Amino acid sequence: MSPKRKGCTVVIEPTKDQIEVQDSTARFNVVVGNAGAAKTMTLAMTIRKRLLTGCGPGELMVLTYTTAAVSALRQRLRWLGLRPDEVRAVRVMTFAELCHELLIPFEGASRHLEGPNRLVHNTLVEAVAMARDRAERHGQADSFELDGDGVLAFPLLLHAFRLMKGTMVLQTLGDEFVLTPESAQDVGLDFTQAAIFRAYEYLRRGRIGAQEIRRDEDEGSTKEELESRFRLDDDPVHDMAALLEANDPVYTDLTHPLKLGIRYLFVDEGHDLNKTMFTVLQHMVSVNPVQQLYVVGDPDQVIHSDTGAERRFMSDTLSFGNSARRFHLPLCRRFGGNLASPLGVFAAKPYEFLSTNETVVAIYKAGSHAAVASYMIGAHARATEVDPERVASVAVLLRHPGRSVQLENTLALEGFHVEANGFEPYMERPEVHFVRTLVAWAAEAMDTLSRANLLAIQSALGEFTGYSNHARVTGVQHKSVATLTTYVFGASPAAFLSNQEAHLRPPPLLYLSDFVATKAIRRFLAAFLAGTTTASLSTLIDEADFRPLAKRAFVFEERVDEAMEAMRAFARSAATFTDFRSWLQQMANREYAAASQARGTRPVLRMYTISAAKGLEFDHVFIPDVDGHSFDGRSQEERNLFYVAASRARRELTMTYRALPSTFLEPFQDCARWDELH
Question: Strands 3-6, 9-12: parallel, antiparallel or unpaired by DSSP?
Fold first, then answer.
């Protein structure tokens, strides 16, 4: 699709497939396009044509899942020649933005938060306490698995809540559903997560959620209490869907929140639809004089099943009524045949490509992340020599960020700034703070820990050892990491191991707070003081058995597995040093240099989780660890993640594996260069 200029207007010649989409007279239209097939441009062309044939901007609406898609659609409209004021007149917004705006008359002007903050944190603390108290009152305390404040589990709890909201699980079960450990198991819910979710929703929505809790907690709420306190991420869509599906709606036919006079409705990223968005879409079609609905997407890019997204919702829009039609956009414009052909085989669908596009695909067997990092550094240098601006279009996409410790560490040692997108850099992870602090205390190298990390270390020790409960009650504050560790563990590792510290008055907090943590740390210290070397530290992590501590801190098994792997990988990074102090000191030196060095003076390498890279594209994409044991299988979600990751590349795609390549790489046998990295 080559742009041409006609006066001051950019004219783009549409393909035959795109013309068919624009000319459709069907009321309900689903446009399925391959990755890189100009789906958003096709949608923009169709919108422009409707505007040119008499549709007013106020009669047209475009809904997307992400703000990035909103920006992309507006950009395409500008490319097609619409003036800035014309682009602004077209209502392009996310489902969440629309629902937040329309809920105000019904649930008050709650705060729309861009991300978790102190208000969310405090609400979660209160929800955990409320759920635990309720479990204890109903004789269910043994089934409530979260100890302490559960602070380290908060990100994962919010993640689990998104699935419960996206699938509308509470609405599906009904107001009369009574949550017990047995009933939770019957419907496939985790009792602890579900109990906290109900309490959290009750608090977040100003006591208008969770009927069962309302019956227990408050029969006489005031109107002020019945206003939503805040909305986060996908909350507005969930709250709108709940309002629309309520047994006793608070609106009439005349005051329906979605009655907006829309004639043409467009949905980009249709593959991201979940039950809440689908419900909102259904109601919009039923209460507006919608002449046409277009839903555009790629079912092979459904990677948000953690929010309830399912490929069926995109197709189900065709069932809204008669006069429905499906279109397909097979021509990829982003990358060449070496990538398009194997992806077509992988996804089992036609994949056309432009002969003028060239994409180099390379697959390497790499024995370690150090070898992968060395290759990345060389590629970064080559890209800088050719065109410094191209370096910004180099990206590393990670399937399992928790396993990237050695990769991040090697890059950092070479002076790179790793820009993490969608995950925490390994040095900021609680489990790494826990191990680093424990090793520093055991090696009598507390001076290598900076006060700048005090709060993070305090949080990590709190959740791993039970310290957080005591700290919350006593309000004890610490001015240094040394005083914190003395308070929790005692002054001397040897004295702790010999049990002398237990007889002090007062004894170190660990003796009072947690028997399981005490046993694990005693096992660690016994082996460490007996002569553990830097090369055997990772083995000691397993022998100490920190898993019960990680389980209490993170709750979710997947996150616990990731934490254990991160601790082992972090410990393995000590193997190249002769002693623990030098290992700890180089980390301290690196942190000091990073803090004092101007950001722009260090080379930057961008790392993304695959979901964070969705919708983006880069000249050169690296995908490490495409292994048979870690990035493989028949799961559709796993296959979609690989498809999305590989299809982000324009000019180069480099993938690596350890011992056994993933079966996902089989379609690349004849289209890629296969070699080894040493």
Answer: antiparallel
- Distance, CA of 535 to CA of 546 (rounded, Å): 19
DSSP string, 470-522: HHHHH----SSHHHHHHHHT-S-HHHHHTTGGGGSSSPPHHHHH-HHHHHHHH
- φ/ψ (deg, to 5) at 220: -125, 55
CA 2/CA 19 separation, integer angstroms: 15
Which tens digit of pLDDT belongs to each residue from 164-183?
A: 999 999 888 887 889 999 99
- Which residues, including other chains, have CB under 8 Å from residue 64's CB and lie 6 or more apart? 70, 73, 92, 93, 94, 95, 267, 268, 269
| Continuous H helices in 256-404 | 275-287, 311-316, 337-347, 369-386
The Cα–Cα gap between 311 and 634 comes to 16
Answer yes or no: are the C-beta atoms of 101 and 63 closer than 8 Å: no
Distance between CA atoms of residues 172 and 244, nearest Å: 13
With H, G, I as helix, E, B as strand and everything else as coil, classify residue 422: coil
Give the C-alpha separation, 273 to 142, whole Å: 37
Distance of alpha carbon 296 from alpha carbon 28, whole angstroms: 11
| Cis status, amide bond into 506, omega within 30 of 0 | yes
Give the tens place of pLDDT for each residue, 311-364: 999 999 999 988 999 999 999 999 999 999 999 999 999 999 988 889 999 999
Ramachandran bin of 269, using left for φ above 0, alpha for ψ from -120 to 50, beta for the remaining angles: left
Contact 82, 73 (CB under 8 A): no
Q: What is the pTM of this model?
A: 0.84
* Residue 178 DSSP one-character state: P
Catalogue the long-range contacts made by 93-97 (C-beta closer than 8 Å, 24 or more residues apart): 93/61, 93/62, 93/63, 93/64, 94/63, 94/64, 94/65, 94/66, 94/67, 94/69, 94/70, 95/63, 95/64, 95/65, 95/236, 95/237, 95/277, 95/280, 96/233, 96/234, 96/235, 96/236, 96/237, 97/236
- Look up residue 495 and give its amino acid: A
Q: Identify the three-state secondary structure at position 333.
A: coil
Question: What are residue 469's phi and psi, to 5 degrees?
Answer: -60, -50
Beta bridge partners of 328: 32
